[in-house]
Amino acid sequence: MSWFKSLISISVLKQSLKPNNKTPVAITNPYSLTHLLKFSTGTEEAGLGPTTGGEKPRVVVLGSGWAGCRLLKGIDTKIYDVVCVSPRNHMVFTPLLASTCVGTLEFRSVAEPIGRIQPAISTEPGSYFFLANCTGVDASEHVVHCRTVTDGQDTLDPRNFIISYDKLIIAAGAQASTFAIKGVTEHAIFLREVHHAQEIRRKLLLNLMLSDVPGVSDEEKRRLLHCVVVGGGPTGVEFSGELSDFITKDVHQRYSHVKDYIHVTLIEANEILSSFDDRLRQYATKQLTKSGVRLVRGIVKDVQPQKIILTDGTDVPYGLLVWSTGVGPSPFVNALEFPKAPGGRLGVDEWLRVPSVQDVFSIGDCSGFLESTGRSTLPALAQVAERQGKYLANQLNKIGKVGGGRANSAKDMDLGTPFVYRHLGSMATIGRYKALVDLRQSKDGKGLSLAGFGSWFIWRSAYLTRVVSWRNRFYVAINWATTFIFGRDISRI
Questions:
Q1: What distance in Å separates the CA atoms of residue 360 and residue 306, rounded to the nearest whole number?
Q2: Which candidate, 244, 296, 234, 302, places its Cα nearest to that of 265?
Q3: What's the first-to-final CA gap in the chain, in angstroms?
Q4: Strands (DSSP E) found in 355-409
Q5: What is the CA radius of gyration of the chain?
Q6: What DSSP line would sit under 461-476, residue for residue?
Q7: How far is C-alpha 97 from the chain's CA centre?
Q8: What are phi and psi of 483, to 5 degrees?
Q9: How far apart are CA 440 and CA 419, in angstroms?
Q10: Closest-CA residue to 397 (of 40, 3, 57, 92)
């Protein structure tokens, strides 16, 4: 790089010696070429090198989910430079994702750009967002290895690079659990990302239009228009409720030729909404059945292109299969050579540190308390991840203010109060302007439980206030009003 530095110096010197310049010109733009020299290049792997004494300590966040984005929002960028590495440049507001599948909401209403959550990555010279996956962590060298994300074969080849960190936060989330059932990955659609919702919407509308084509047999129409949801948790129940509303209010009006063929089946191995109060579960079962959702208790054995097979031998033909059976550790988390908590998550202590290494923390669905802490693993919920992100941001800000932001500088520091999670309750919509609100702090605890239209109003009000930005709150409110007045959009785009 010495030749590049010389070239810059010569260019600046030539500019300063021009006749119309009375004083030498200095490069003051923070995005100048000299600033870019911090990206190491050459024979070694390119990337961001270690921070120096004249720079702010660097916090690297892996992931852009609830935990990572809440930390990005709360971190003090006067103390730290922040670098976010994620395969998506937005956060997904997952509680409303099911509504986008049937046109109740537009997709952009549930996607919040990272640059709006933490403006420093767009404006500060030492803060960045990289559209990439982390491929490895070298804790001894305080370095993460990354590879850029590409869209298909017609784009540029992926590039490998490294980032040195002072503090590393692993918030890489989890992946959908398939329980090693054959055919799930190939034929089912998950509901965790915006592109999943887009795929579900396109598949649903395609099947509706194909079933209306002359010559299609009644049996094939029933298969094409059979929507099967596997998993009776909040996501599966909410999607089933949204789908039944879509069928009742929109399909029956706009696809009257095939309205008698479309139906929804929800398959669950045990009870639906197992974490909710018994009375609320019974209410949900009654309302879903009344709205036309067929509830089946069973375990999936095999998934084939046009049908699923249950363990009792029952064949269930389908046109659309949505898989929502919980989450498990991702391959990236499994590959990390750090101690694991029960269930395969990254093990952390009471302060959300990975105790076997320095300056590494883990939050969100990818982390869990080590058995040595005596704490149980927390559920994979948005409110858990958000609370952990907020707590850790405050901890890092405290550490940074007393000089502990640099690598290996907070080894003996007192981190104060450990993280404590208090459950605020659970909510789920079940369609037909009805929802469930369970305000108990635990499954066996006591508390207020509500169901019906009032709960639906609470559900909508609560999530409208929890949407990250005023921009998206406006989008959501307008989408709800538009759907109520004009119905759902059925365009296949």
A1: 45
A2: 296
A3: 48
A4: 360-362, 367-369
A5: 26
A6: HHHHHHSSSHHHHHHH
A7: 11
A8: -65, -40
A9: 20
A10: 57
Q: How confident is the model at residue 465 (pLDDT cuts 50, 70, 90)?
A: very high
Q: What are phi and psi of 450, to 5 degrees?
A: -130, 150
What would the mean pLDDT of 230-257 be, rounded to a whole number?
93
Contact 333, 368 (CB under 8 A): no
Please choose, from the candidates 490, 54, 435, 9, the residue with its C-alpha nearest in 3D space to the C-alpha of residue 238: 435
Distance CA 319, CA 225 (A): 6
Question: How many Cα atoms within 13 Å fall on the side-chain side of residue 427?
Answer: 23
Contact 248, 212 (CB under 8 A): no
Sign of CA dihedral 198, 202, 205, 208: negative
Question: Which residue stretches of 218-335 are H helix?
Answer: 218-224, 234-246, 252-254, 278-290, 331-335
Write out the two tokens for 32.
Answer: 């100048």
- Burial (CB < 10 A; 0-12, 13-18, 19+), residue 246, is buried
Give the span between the Cα atoms of 129 and 461, in whole angstroms. Answer: 32
- The number of CA neighbours under 13 Å toward the Cβ of 112 is 27
423-450 average pLDDT score: 89
The three-state secondary structure class of 378 is coil
Interval 366-388: pLDDT, tens: 999 999 999 999 999 999 999 99
Indicate the average pLDDT of the chain. 90
DSSP string, 146-170: EEE---STTSPPP-EEEEE-SEEEE
Per the DSSP assignment, residues forming a β-bridge with 10 are none
Tell me 180's DSSP state: T
Number of helices (H), then strands (E), belonging to the chain: the values are 16, 26
Q: What are the distances in angstroms from CA 301 to CA 270, 288, 320, 329, 486?
A: 15, 25, 17, 22, 42
Confidence (pTM) = 0.88
Element at 245 (helix H, strand E): helix 234-246
What does the pLDDT look like over 273-307, one tens digit per residue? 999 999 999 999 999 999 999 999 999 999 999 99
> Half-sphere exposure of 404 toward its Cβ, with a 13 Å CA cutoff?
14
Q: At what angle do helices 234-246 and 278-290 cross, to 10 degrees?
A: 30
**Of all helices (H) and strands (E), which one includes residue 284?**
helix 278-290
Burial of 386 (0-12, 13-18, 19+ CB in 10 A): buried
In angstroms, the Cα distances linking 96 to 125, 147, 439, 445, 455 are 34, 30, 20, 27, 16
pLDDT score, position 13: 38
Q: Whose structure tokens read 């003996």?
A: 412
